Amino acid sequence: MTSGAVLIIDDELRSQESLKRVLAEEFDVLLASNAQEAEAILAGDLVQAILCDQRMPGVSGVDFLRHVRETWPDPVRMIISGFSESEDIIAGVNEAGIYQYITKPWRPEKLLETVRDAVRLYHLQKEPGGVGAESKPSHGTLNRVLAERRREQKKMFEFDRIVHDPNGPMVDTLALARKATGYDISVLVTGASGAGKELLARAIHFGSARGDKPFVIENCGALPDELLESELFGCKKGAYTGAYQDRIGLFELADGGTIFLDEIGETSPAFQVKLLRVLQEREIRPLGAARSRKIDVRVISATNRDLENEVEQGRFRRDLFYRLNAFPIHLPALSERRGDIPRIAESILAEVNRSFRRKIPGFAPETMRRLCAYVWPGNVRELHNEIQRMVVMAEAEEPLGAHLLSARVGAERGAAKNFNGPSTLKDQVEALERVAIAKTLLDCAGNISHAAEKLGLSRVGLRAKIDRYDLRRDVGGGYEQ
């Protein structure tokens, strides 16, 4: 028995099907590829929630949902965006009255819970004496719903929930991060891609006095300067080609809370100047606007680059570096904390079991041995993907066997030697060298010249070591020369 109807509006059929698979067991799912099809459905069907992609043919998701609000005010409106994240948006901050932003890539269990909340809110609106006049959500009720979600998030992202070996290197890292929660100070988290920098930033935010306020995320390496400025600072209609409406920036949405600027090392010098001014003056001026607006936002930034070296090379502003680096925290790579792997793997498996509705009881001993021996150049993110794949491949509800491991993880050639075993000194040195090269290649986004410079090798020498350790398969295959 379904608990409501959800309309999905997305012009990509694969996205439609992915969303439908997650929601279909619990809701009646209606599909539309464009605004016209969606309007026809809304005119003839009772819909409790609308899940709309931001990019659609002919009209943006925000523009369409503004029209929906005026014509069909009852459904709870949500939007999927591939560019930025703000899970704690206060309802009513924009004209479309969007209840929730959901970012790509979304997690099935999180998406399902968000849609459940939206449908519950719809029914709350319909109860006698419920949400407010004309069956429209009152901002007070929505704010209470979002406040409850923040309390749940605060529990979810507590430091104690970060899985780690109680005797491993993460103990010191977490102790340092806990100190940052007590002071309103800028934090710079460094570490390899996929190591969990965002998770640590969330723990710092929700453990601080700002924990009941918004936590907003932007990947600074994903957008060109003009779009990044619009995302962070906002813009007025007509400020640039494609600016068809006023846009509230993420700094303003994060007012009172925290903004997490991921991949800060990827920004251009021109953008760095503008960000520095925002941090110095504590105010923003949207693109095309005549006046600035004061903001109260804590900044946590993250990078997989060596920013001090970037400063020395003239690629990152020294004054901005000092602004961001008031409280530095380094997050060790997974290869540096192998004792964490069994606990993290079990935690990931429990999450994947819930998402995929499986009951896999754990890992066979040989499987866990190989998971612990592998280098993991992609860190926790790669481990998560590997376990997801194994669960999909498993045909029975029994411990995951080593035969389910992918070739790069399961093969002994892809594993670092166990230093407590009978390996020779040469084996140990080569294993450490392999880890160092794999990590540097990831940090340099596969750029051989940059990686060779950091490692003190020639490009020819580095390419020879890549071939020797078979890193093309492990790190991704394609490299820039």
UniProtKB/TrEMBL annotation:
Keywords assigned: Activator, ATP-binding, DNA-binding, Nucleotide-binding, Transcription, Transcription regulation, Two-component regulatory system
InterPro entries named among the record's database cross-references: AAA+_ATPase, AAA_lid_NorR, CheY-like_superfamily, Homeodomain-like_sf, HTH_Fis, P-loop_NTPase, Sig_transdc_resp-reg_receiver, Sigma_54_int
Any one Gene Ontology BP term: phosphorelay signal transduction system
CDD domains from the UniProt entry: AAA
Organism: Rhodoblastus sphagnicola
SMART domains xrefs: AAA, REC
GO MF, any single term: sequence-specific DNA binding
Name of the featured protein: Sigma-54-dependent Fis family transcriptional regulator
SUPFAM superfamilies in the cross-refs: CheY-like, Homeodomain-like, P-loop containing nucleoside triphosphate hydrolases
